[in-house]
Amino acid sequence: MIRVLDKRIADKIAAGEVIDRPVSIVKELVENAVDAKASSITVEIKNGGKSYIRVTDNGCGIPEEETETAFLRHATSKIQTVGDLDSIETLGFRGEALASICAVSRTELVTKCKESKAGTRLLIHGGEVTLHQQTGCPDGTTVIVTDLFYNTPARRKFMKSDSAESGMIIDFVSQMALAYKDIRFRLISNASVLFSTAGDGDRFNTIVRVYKNINPNNLTPVCYQEGKLRLEGYISTPAQTKNSRSSQVFFVNGRAVHSKVIEKGLTEGYRERLFEGRYPVAYLFLEADPADIDVNIHPNKKEVRFDQEAEIIDFVTRAVRISLGSETAMVSGASLFREKSSEDTAKDAHAEQVDIKKFLSSNVQEPVSAHSLDPSFLSESEPVISAPVFLKNAEQLSADLENSADSFFPSLEIETPEIRPFNFQDLQITGSIFHTYITAVTSDAFFLIDQHAAHERIFYEKLVREYEQDEKIRQPILIPLILEVSLKADADSVNWLTALAQMGYTIHEFGPGTYRITEIPAFMTLEEADQFAQDFTDQISDSTNLKNSVVIQKLIMKSCKSAVKGGDVLSMEEMEALLRDLSACVNPFSCPHGRPTFVRLTRYEIERLFKRIPS
Ligand code: ADP
Ligand code: MG
Q: SS3 for 416?
């Protein structure tokens, strides 16, 4: 028998499609807050959102007479006519979210428009309004959702652990905070503030506040444009990598998306700079002509398709390469001068960011105003979670934070940073200190270059290149080197003999466990060649797969550590040669083990150290 379903059953079925877990509720409520033009949005959850979700905004509010309508299916203020469908500028428009949410939970709405004297409070349980009253409340809207899925046991069972559910919510709110950098976002979980952004439009500041596990000193800006394509954001230098892609967030035309294409471009941009299995941190914002892309906005899985995939990959690769070759990809000396608390890091990062901008725009006409250069205005900023915060209740806390908003975060006029490639030719060597560090200057910065780390980098890249090249450049040696290897290595000699031969060694068996080297790679000294071959063979174990070029690269990396020695007094010519060789490297700013080769102190940073500029 065919029957039209009872409204409540129909609502429950429909709700399941939009609302399948706590994060989908958070998503709908936050999107409504954005659509309501809020400048401040607070999300509070308990137990991963299973027991409590609150979203508070300071947006336009809902007029009292429309509050109940808002919860009806297909009730929306965002489109009026069929024509409106073609020019949607809001995140929602189907008018289903509130109806779906209230069908599967206990929902409370508190809302007030600026024009109204009083606000409205509505309680809805299982889709039925159980209370409707006037109430005093601030402008804006709060929606509180409890008893989630109380009437849909299947959904309730389908939820994952608290931490898995809150993980999804944290990811979502983090991405929204980045995408809407002009909105202040605050995320509270089980009464502690996970993060809170300034909403001052400063992307770097936002990233630093949201992703506290990332060291801001290891981020370098990306800013590149070609025709209608523009890529902005921040990526990590090779000094900070992760073992998964989980710290990569991509946005296309303002929306967070998954994109294999951007991923590929990013990976390609880092090629030869990272080991296999390591992934950079990346927050990338791509702007493209909407006509050239197709965003499939499935509620939880946003995939974007590009008409010209290869073009996008190349574009992202270029942008990343330029960024990694720039001076800002170098370690800044200023960050090393004092011990820092995690709170300081964010402040410093901000100051540093301003530094970078100041530094980058070498042709600054008017420096950024003294006030905005002064990072101390951040000092009274919201607490990075510390013990006393837990003592306050969350309501009080959020009220405090809400009030503190504007006075503590004067907006900064931030232009996008100019990415200037680092030009080795501008470096003027001034000498060396401790027989270890070369000192050099450009017109606006001072540099320390670690001889040993630089040499390691050069040695490593030359060896890898030699290994991959067909033609080897060898030098014969007068007295052959004798190499003695372990039993293990001896048993497996065919493989590593081939590998060493491929790097430019001529080496033959001489007796049990003993090998004779008669030629070495052209760029090595005798000692280096000897030490390297020794270290290389020492690393060989039964499981070493010497046919895998990544394994070879890792072995080379480990072995060049002791092969290259530091502490030599270098002549001016030798220092110049070292820097010339370094400039030819793919990744000149860190040694193969990830330590910096360069430390940079800008003139501005130096002036701050001497208190010529207030800090
Ligand atoms: P949609 O967002 O697709 O319009 P919803 O069910 O999410 O549908 O919301 C229904 C309506 O309720 C919206 O069109 C809007 O007018 C109103 N509304 C919902 N949330 C808010 C909010 N936070 N602030 C102001 N109005 C809101
Ligand atoms: Mg909506």
A: coil
Q: For residue 539, what are the contacts with CB-CB under 8 A and spacing of at least 6? A: 555, 558, 559
**462: its two tokens:** 């030359």
Question: Is residue 57 in contact with ligand 1, taking CB distance under 6 Å?
Answer: yes
| CA of 93, nearest ligand number | 1
Tens digits of per-residue pLDDT, 8-63? 777 776 666 678 899 999 999 999 999 999 999 999 999 999 999 999 999 999 99
Ligand 2 ion: Cβ-proximal residues, 5 Å cutoff: 32, 92, 97
Q: Which residues contact 47 (CB under 8 A, 6 or more apart)?
A: 162, 165, 166, 190
Tell me the whole-structure pTM to 2 decimals.
0.73
Structural tokens at position 256: 């967070």
Angle between helix 260-269 and 309-324 (nearest 10): 40
Please tell me the residue having the least CA distance from ligand 1 atom 8: 95
CA distance 326 to 362: 14
Residues 238 and 594 sit within 8 Å (Cβ to Cβ): yes
pLDDT digits (tens, 9 = 90+) for 297-313: 555 557 888 999 999 99
Residue 203 · residue 233 · CB < 8 Å = yes
Tell how far the Cα of 178 is from the centroid of ligand 1, in angstroms: 22
Say what the pLDDT of residue 395 is: 46
Residue 92 alpha carbon to ligand 1 centre in Å: 8
141 lines ligand 1 (CB under 6 A): yes
Cβ of 101 less than 6 Å from ligand 1: no
Indicate the top mutation candidate among 35, 58, 68, 101 to test ligand 1's pocket, ranked by most ligand atoms within 8 A of CB: 35
For the segment 237-296, what is each residue's pLDDT rounded down to a tens digit? 887 888 888 899 999 998 899 999 999 999 999 887 777 778 999 999 999 998 888 876
Phi, psi of 510 (to 5 degrees): -125, -25
Please tell me whether residue 387 adopts helix, strand or coil conformation: helix
Tokens of 243: 């073992």
Q: Whose CA is nearest to atom 16 of ligand 1?
A: 77
Cα 428 to Cα 264, 361, 439, 441, distances in angstroms: 37, 21, 9, 5
Please identify which residue in the block is written with the tokens 């429909």. Answer: 14
Cβ neighbourhood burial of 255 (10 Å; 0-12, 13-18, 19+): middle
CA 206/CA 534 separation, integer angstroms: 49
Q: What mean pLDDT is predicted for residues 578-601?
A: 89
426, 443 contact by CB (below 8 A): yes
Asked whether 332 lines ligand 1 (CB < 6 A), one says no
User: Are residues 33 and 59 in contact, defined by beta-carbon separation less than 8 angstroms?
Assistant: yes
CB 110 near ligand 1, within 6 Å: no
DSSP one-letter code for 258? B
The answer to whether the CB of 33 is under 6 A from ligand 1 is yes
Query: Is the CB of residue 73 below 6 angstroms from any atom belonging to ligand 1?
Result: no
What whole-number distance in Å separates Cα of residue 422 and Cα of residue 602?
13
Q: How far is 121 from 101, CA to CA, in rounded Å?
A: 17
Q: Which atom of ligand 1 is nearest to the CA of 79?
A: 4
Side-chain-side CA neighbours of residue 504 (13 Å): 24
